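Many introductory courses stop at the sequence. We go one step further.
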Amino acid sequence: MRALVIVDVQNDFCEGGSLAVQGGAATAAAISRHVVAEAEAYAHVVASRDYHIDPGEHFSDEPDFSASWPAHCVADTAGAQFHQDFDTSRVEAVFSKGANSAAYSVFEGTDEAGTPLAVWLRERGVAELDVVGIATDHCVRATALDAARHGFTTRVLLSLTAGVHPATTAAAVDEMRAAGVDLAGTPLLAGSPQDGTGEAAE
């Protein structure tokens, strides 16, 4: 049984947001199309959201963009809402993460009942995961690595992800591959053919 895990397709991670990833909006729309086109492929579809309240040093006025970041996806703000091009009508459960921590991986999140993702999936007999979303080199990477550690057969559909930077995205791809994660496609990056301005990074 396979599930689709959609990572952090939120306003603050798309163009115009406080921590925007170029190609975020295009990724949101592409994921929505994929969910419709591949509806029969997934027994379950879930989504995650950063939902920060007081994440400590994860937020900084002088961020290093590695361990600290500008404030983003603050609970109950417009920036934390799902992007308008991400159709959530087929999403069965939303897992919120990062109230008081960085929480890059969806496996650190819980649904409205407080159930962690790994427990939720196992209760439903899910053994295989497809992972998509934002950003390839951060929360998608962390989620895929955790999925593999939890014993799920994991595939990242890279063409349905957007990366922050070519170097960190390439490193994330290598790390996921080394962890046994199956990879398909190429992530959307600034300057890639998908946005019409250059070459894609592998």
